[in-house]
Specification:
CATH architecture of the largest domain in chain B: 2-Layer Sandwich
Oligomer: heterodimer
Helix content of chain B: 25-40%
Strand content of chain A: 5-15%
Helix content of chain A: 40-55%
Bound molecules: flavin-adenine dinucleotide, iron/sulfur cluster
Low-confidence stretches of chain A: 1-31
Mean pLDDT of chain A: 89
Mean pLDDT of chain B: 91
Distance between the termini of chain B: 84 Å
Largest sheet of chain B: 9 strands, mixed
Largest sheet of chain A: 4 strands, parallel
Distance between the termini of chain A: 26 Å
Amino acid sequence: MSDAQPTDFDPVEPNTGEGFEPVEVFPESDDFDLRPGADSCYKCSVCDTNCPVAEVDDDFPGPKFQGPEQWRLKQTDDDYEIDDSVMSCSNCMRCDSACPSGVPLSQMHNTARGEYVEEQMDKLSVEYVRNRILSNYRLSASIASKVPRLANFAMNFGPARWVMEKTMGVTSERDFPEFAQQTFREWWAARGGADASRANAVESRERRGEPADADKKVAYFHGCYSNYNTPDVGKAMVHVFEHFGYEVVAPEQKCSGTPMFANGMLDDARRHAEVNVSSMSDLVDQGYDAIASCTSCSMALRQEYPELFDIDGIEKVASNTFEAIEYLRIHEDVKGEIESAEVSGELAQEFAYHAPCHARNQGLERQAVELFRDLDGVGVEDVGDSCSGISGTYGWKEEKYEKSMEIGDEMFEHMEHAEGETGMTECPTCAMQMEHGTGYEIRHPLELVEAAVVE
Amino acid sequence: MASTPHIAVIGGGSTGVGIARDLAMRGLDVTLVEQGNLTHGTTGRMHGLLHSGGRYAVSDQASATECIEENRVLRDIASHCVEMTGGMFVKRPEDSEEYFQEKLQGCKECGIPADVVSGAEARQMEPHLAKDVEKAITVPDGAIDPFRLVVANAASAQEHGARIETHSKVTDLLVEDDEVVGLEVEHASGPGKRVHGTEGGTEEIRADYVVNATGAWAGRIGDMADLDIAVRPSKGVMTIMNIRQVDTVINRCRPKGDADIVVPHETTAILGTTDEEVEDPEDYPEEQWEVDLMIETLSELIPMLEEARTIRSFWGVRPLYEPPDVGSEDPTDITRDFFLLDHDERDDLPGMTSIVGGKFTTYRMMGEQISDHVCGKFGIDAECRTADEPLPGSEDFSVLRDYMDEFGLRSPIGRRSVERLGSRADEVLKTEGPNPTVCECEGVTRAEIQDAISQSGSDLNAVRIRTRASMGNCQGGICTHRMASELHGEYDEGIVREAWDELLQERWKGQRHALWGEQLSQAALNYALHATTQNRDNDPAGGDPVDFAAFDSGVDHTDDSGTADVAADGGKPDGD
Ligand SMILES: Cc1cc2nc3c(=O)[nH]c(=O)nc-3n(C[C@H](O)[C@H](O)[C@H](O)COP(=O)(O)OP(=O)(O)OC[C@H]3O[C@@H](n4cnc5c(N)ncnc54)[C@H](O)[C@@H]3O)c2cc1C
Ligand code: SF4
Ligand code: SF4
C-alpha cells in the first residue's frame, strides 16, 4: 500500500467546494493574453476549409473571422460588440488542429462566446434560457434520474416535445436519451466504493504477478452521461482498470463544462470546473491520474480549463488527465492481451467506428481501430474523418437541427457502407447522432475491451 | 476688391491642405498641386500622435502650448480621425527623477492636464508595461489618422470651390518682372482624378499668390527662383506592430533619445522613432539596425514587443527649419516650431511665401496664420472658421449604432467602417447590391472601396489611404487583387493591371524591414499565393492586354443534350 494515502480519506465524500477563492474569468493578467496567438495568423484560410459548420452554413463566417480577425478588429475599444455568429460555432475544435500556425482558435471562440453571452445576450430571451438548460444537462439529468421511468416517458412524450420545440427551440426530431434505472454512482456506492475497488485491484495484481502494493491508482472522471445514461460504460471502465490492477476512485465531480463552453456559459462552467479541479488536484497530489471515458471531458480538463480559467492546481490536473484507452495503451500491454483474446456473444460484431472531433484533437482518432485490429470475433471499420455534426448541444437546437444532419450525412453514409449494424465511438453525443442517423446501436470501446479481457 | 484672388498652394501634406481649406472657406480661389498622392510626403510617413504637448513641455514650451490648444480643436473638428487614447510618460528606475519633476511642472505651466500615477496604477491601465516601471505622468495624448485627416481637409476645400490636383508636379515657378506669378505643372495622368496610363501634360497655372507648403522639399521650390530656403531634413524610422500591445500612448520620460514612444493606431501599434539629418528628402538609406535598435530599446518599456510580430517599417523626414543664425549641431535641438518666410520681405521677391517646420498636430493653426498673412496681402478681412466647422465626416454623429441591422454587416466590421467614415457612413454604406468584405484584416467592404475610387480614380494607393484596405496583417496578400477587381467596369484591363502593380510594389516595399518570424511566413505565403494563383511572379501576358476574345466561351449549358465531356475541374463529369 502506498503510504501517501491517509486512512480516513474517502474520495466519495462530497467536496462542498467551500474554501474556494472565486477568481475572475478574465483577470487583468497576461496569462490569457491572446496577442501572441493573434500574431500567429497569416490568413491562409485552412481553418475555414476544415470547419464543418462553415461547409453547410453560408451565414457562418468561419473560424478565421471568428477567431483572429474579430479579435484584432475589436481590440481598439472596450465597447466593441462580438458578432452574434459566434453562437453558430459548434466548438468542435477542428479549426484548432487544422491551423498550421498554432493559432489558439477555440480559445478565441470560447472567450468571444463567453463575452457575447455575458454582455450582449438578453438573459430573458428564449435562446438564452434554452442554451442554459441544454448546457446544464447535469442538472436536468440529476432530477430526471430520480424518477427515470417517468422522465423517459415524459421527455419523449409527443405533445410535450412539440411544446418544447415551439417555446424553447429544442428540436422535436431527436429522442431524448434514456435515463438508467440505476446511476453509475449508485452502482458504485452499492458495490462498496473505493474500498471494494482496492480489494479487486490487489487481487488482480496477485493474479498478474505484480506486487500487491503496486502504485497503480486512478481517479475516474465519469462525467454526466455515463453516470445518468450509460452506466455500462462506467462499469466497463472500472472493470477494465481493476483487471489491469488499478484501484479506482470516483471523486466528487460536476459537469466537465463542455456544453457550457459551446454555449458561452463561462460562469457556469467555471463553477463546475472549480469543484472538479479541487477534487482532482487533491488526488493528483496523492499520485492518482485522472481518467475520463468521454473524449470531450478529457479535452475540457486538459485544454479548455487551463486556457480559460485560473484555478489553483489547474495545470497539474491538466497534465495528469488522460482518456481511458489512451492511458492503458501507454501503461499496459492492452493490445497484447486483446490479440490473444476472443469475443463471442453480444459484442461479436462488425463495428462502424467514428472518431469524435475532440478525440482527434487529442491525437486519439486511430486508437480504437489499432487496438481491436487483431481481436478475434470482431471487426472495426473507421468511417472517415468527417464530423458527426451534433457537437454536443448544437444539434439539439431547433434552428441548427437541419445543418447538424447535413454535416452528419457523410458519416451516416459511411456507416451504411460499413459492414455490420453497430456503431462505436468514445463520445456520448456523437453516439446519439450516430444512432439518430442510422438506427444502429452504439457502443463504447471500453465495453469491447471489457468483453475481450475481463472474464 | 474687384475679383477674387487666386492662390496656388504647392504641397498636398497636412500643411498644404490645411491652408487650402482655410483660404477656400474664406472665399478665395484656391488651386492645390501635389506631385504624388495626398500625404505623399512626410504627412504619410509620420507617427500619428496627436500631441498633448507633453513631449515639448520641458524643452520647447511655445510648441507645447500650441499643441494642447490644437489637440482640443482637432478632437472637436476631426473626431472621426482622432482616437483619444490618453498618454503616459513612464519612468524606469534608471530615468532621472529630476527630469520627471521638470516634465510634470512643464505640463502644468503649459496648461496640459497631467497627473502622476504609481507604477501599479500604470500597469493596471496598461498590463504589458514593464514590471519595474516606477511611475508615470498621464497626459491627453491621442492617436490621429493623417490620411483621413488630409483627405477630409481636401474634400472640404473642394466643397468650398478649391481645385485639388494630385500627381501634378511643380516643375518651375513663373517669375515675371521680379514677381512670382504662377506655376508650371506637369500632370502625370492628366488633370482631375488619377487614371493610370492617361497622357499627362504641362499646364501653366497663373496665380495672384503662391504658397510653398512643400515641407522637406521647400528648398527645391526655392531653388526654382534662386531663393535659399535652408530646410534641414531629418529622418526617423517607425515600425508597425501587427496588433496593439498598448491602448494608450506610451512615452519614455527622459530628456531626449531615440525609440521612446509607442502609439496605438487603429488595429496596430507604431513604434518610433529616430532623428538623423539627411541630405536628400527622397533618397536616404533605410537600415535594418535602426529597426532593431528601436524594438530593443522599446522592449525596456513593453517587454512583449521583443517577441511580437511587426508588419512593416517606414521612414519619414522631418521638415526642420531653423533661422540661419541659430546653428544647432544635433537635429533634436532644432525647434519644432514653424516659420513663415515672406519672400518679399526676406528676398525682395513678391508673390510667394514659404511655410516651413512645424508639426502635424498644429497644421490647422499654421494654415490659419498663413491664410491671415495672404488675406492681409489682398486687404481681405475674412474670419478664420476652420477651428469651428467640423470636417466632412466629423459632423454631429455617434458611432454606437446597430450596424449589423442597418448595413447588413458583421458587427466589428460595421463598427470599424463607421469609425472610419464618421458621419459619411450612411451615404457610403447604404448600397443597393451585395457588400462583401474586400479587406478582411481591416474589415473594409466593397462600398467603402467604391466610395474611395469615386474620389480618387484608378489609384489604388489612394484607395488604400482612404480606407486602410491592404494595411492589415497580411499586407495585401489576400485583398490586392480584389481591390483591383473593384476597378473593373469603369476602367479597362491595362489600367487595372498598372494600378494593381503599383499597389503591390508599395506593399512589398514596407515589408522589407519586417521579414522575420511571422511576417516572413506571411510574405512567403503571399508570394506563393500571388505566384501560383495570379501569375504575379512571371505573367505570361507580360502586361500586354489579354485578348479575351481568343478564348472559347466554354460549354454551352443551355444545350441540354449533355454532350460536354469535361467537368470544370478537368475530370469527367460522371467520374468520382
Ligand atoms: C518620423 C516622423 C514622425 C513624426 N511624428 C509626428 C507626430 O506623431 N505628430 C505630429 O504632430 N507630427 C509628427 N511629425 C511631423 C509631421 O509629420 C510633419 O511636420 C508634417 O507632416 C509636415 O507636413 P507638410 O505638409 O508640411 O509636409 P509634407 O507632408 O512633406 O508635404 C509636402 C508635400 O509637398 C509635395 N511636393 C514636394 N515637392 C513638390 C513639387 N515640386 N510639386 C508638387 N508637390 C510637391 C510633397 O510630395 C509632399 O506631399 C513627424 C515627422 C517625422 C519625420
Ligand atoms: S470550433 Fe468547429 S465549428 Fe467552431 S469555428 Fe472551429 S471548426 Fe468551425
Ligand atoms: S488556419 Fe491558422 S493561420 Fe490559417 S487563417 Fe486559420 S487561424 Fe490563420
